[in-house]
Amino acid sequence: MRSIIRLLKKQNKGGFTLVEVVVSVALLAILMGGMMMFIAPIVRNFNDNQKDQSAQSVAACINDYIVHSIRYATQVAVFSNTDYATLMSNSANLDRIKSMNDYCNSANSSNQAYQLKCLSLKYDAATSMYYLYEEKVDSTSNGKIYEDKPGADASKKPRKVFSDCFYNDLYMTFEIVQPENGDYGKIENAPLLRNDALKFTINAYRDSARQTMIYYGEGISEMRNIKGMLKHGGKAEDYNITVSPASPVSFDSMADGDPRDIYIYYIKRTLAVIPTTP
Q1: What b/e readout covers 195-225, taking b as 16+ CB neighbours within 10 angstroms?
Q2: pTM value?
Q3: Is residue 181 within 8 Å of residue 165, measured between CB atoms?
Q4: Virtual torsion, Cα 188, 192, 198, 199, nearest 10 deg
Q5: I need a labelling partner for 18 at 20 to 30 A (CA). Which of 37, 42, 92, 172 fits?
Q6: 197 close to 222: Cβ distance less than 8 angstroms
Q7: Residue 257 and residue 125: Cα distance in Å, rounded?
Q8: Is residue 172 part of a domain?
Q9: pLDDT tens, residue order, the chain (278 aa)
């Protein structure tokens, strides 16, 4: 390096010769190439580690957003292995959604304390990635959601909860089911599945083919309002959880073109605001 600097500093009346310039540039190029060969593996390793670490944060944020949204719901209905067209073509699904919408309309005779809401995890075939959405529910149409069509009212279009960059090019899979009673310990004569909780499983992969897993997480979240009301005599038809299908097809078992979305309908109960008088 010192010889290069001396060469660059060399001055005479004739300046640098063409040979000196060519040699200097060639030596600098070789030096920079050697430095990049040394640095590149470090940069790649840092990027890979950063993605591995971010996978847990991304999965936790998605899980927390869903759980915090539905934790105090009075009813929850999860529909997996579907898309909107498939969801709306199934009479059992339509009946379930309609019953939840009817419950809200009946309970809201004097106020708007109960609202039918919907979250969705939609698979985008163009990117091979999932995105979390807040859907807009039409309570005047048996609980159907407004579709994202050209010219539609922007306030009624589904909204992405997180920006695309949040997902950090992670390829995820999701499974939401009712947990077996066994997570409480074996209970004699107890029903097979709990009716007050949901089990979430989230996987993250580095590649779109989902061959290289970098994160796996699962956990059980109790629906506190449902659990409390059932414990204190609430009716099962008013406080319940359903999952359809009960055992969803896993992502890696699906064929190309199979619907892969998940819709989570839930009844949100808002607390009444009692005005105070001075």
Answers
A1: bbbbbbebbbbbeeebeeebbeeeeebebeb
A2: 0.79
A3: no
A4: 90
A5: 37
A6: yes
A7: 9
A8: yes
A9: 555 555 555 555 555 676 666 777 777 777 777 667 765 555 454 455 667 778 999 999 999 999 999 999 999 999 999 999 999 999 999 999 999 999 998 877 656 688 999 999 999 999 999 999 999 999 889 999 998 888 778 888 899 999 999 998 999 999 999 988 756 655 666 667 788 999 999 999 999 999 999 999 999 999 999 999 988 898 988 999 999 999 999 999 999 999 999 999 999 987 656 556 65
Establish if 210 belongs to a structural domain: yes
Q: How many domains does the chain have?
A: 1
Does residue 8 lie within any of the structural domains? no
How far does Cα 275 stand from its chain's mean position? 38
Q: Tokens 């999952």 appear where?
A: 243
Domain that holds residue 67: 44-269
- The residue to which tokens 């819709």 are assigned: 263
Q: Are 38 and 226 in contact (CB under 8 A)?
A: no
Query: Could you tell me the two tokens for 106?
Result: 């009946």
Q: Which tokens hold the place of 47?
A: 């990027």
Longest CA–CA span in the chain (Å) reads: 102
Strands, sheet with 75-82, edge to edge from the N-terminal-most edge strand: 159-160, 129-135, 114-124, 261-269, 75-82, 240-244
